[in-house]
Amino acid sequence: MTQGMQACVRNGLTVLTTEFTQPWEEFADLMVLDLTGCQFTNPDLMQLSQLSNVRVLNLSGTNITDDTINFIYELSSLTALYLQNTKVSAKGLTRLRKRLPCCGVIA
Questions:
Q1: What's the pTM?
Q2: Are 80 and 56 a contacting pair, CB within 8 Å?
């Protein structure tokens, strides 16, 4: 993952780091992920789709856009998605809410 990742929470344990080097497969059971302020590349975002058990995802303050939200559609376990201060448009938010009806999308 790109430099700037601040924290991730794994099974109640908070891990603080500035560089993420572990394979995403090691976090298959991750349920809460806070990536506030992290800057992503498209490959980074595609890797997040492997976190099929994630329930809460905070992408506030990231560079995510309408063009890069498609990976979120695969996260069917999401119950809360935070997108404050991103470049996701109202149209993109509407698409997310339709594709993930059981997820609260907060923008």
A1: 0.78
A2: yes
Measured CA angle at 102 (ends 96, 107), to 5 deg: 45
For the domain made up of 7-106, the CATH class stated in words is alpha beta
The CA–CA distances, whole Å, from 4 to 11, 18, 48 equal: 22, 5, 16
Report percent pLDDT > 70 for the chain: 77
Parse the chain into domains and list their residue ranges.
Answer: 7-106
Residue 16 CA to residue 65 CA, distance in Å, equals: 25
DSSP 64-96: -BGGG-GGGGG-TT-SEEE-TTSB--HHHHHHH
Residue 80 backbone dihedrals phi, psi, to 5 degrees = -145, 130
Residue type, 20: F
Q: How many CB atoms lie within 10 A of CB 47?
A: 17
* Residue 45: pLDDT over 90: no
